[in-house]
Each structure stands twice: as C-alpha cells, then as structure tokens.
C-alpha cells in the first residue's frame, strides 16, 4: 500500500480542502471540512479501494492520515 496513493484517494473525499493540505502527518479530524459525512465517505472509499472494513472507532483512534493507513494495512 502506497502512502501517496492513499492520500490522493483520501483527499478526493473532500470538496473544499486543497490537496496540498493532505500529508501523512495531517491530523485529518482537525480539518475544517471534516464531519461525519466525510468520515462515512472515507469508510466507503477504504472498502471500495482496499476491500477493508474500517469502523468509526478506527477513525476516532487514528490521529493522522498515516495512522489510518496503518490501520487499513493491518486489516488487509
């Protein structure tokens, strides 16, 4: 699993946040656009792209995009 690809797919779930804002160390829940709808879209994206089911708890327990990618990788 490639971090740059994961970040690109992650960023596509946001409408108004610049792609340049997304880095492995980005604390995604601190982004202005973050809300429960974006969280659901992230869950759906991970399922569709990686065939992995992540939960709301997985997202809440992940501080950064890299943390969430590590959770996804651990479930593959």
TrEMBL record:
Residue ranges occupied by any Carrier domain in the UniProt entry: 1-76
Cross-referenced InterPro entries: ACP-like_sf, PP-bd_ACP
Gene3D superfamilies: ACP-like
SUPFAM superfamilies documented for this protein: ACP-like
Superkingdom as given in the UniProt entry: Bacteria
Protein name stated in the entry: Acyl carrier protein
Species for this entry: Arcticibacterium luteifluviistationis
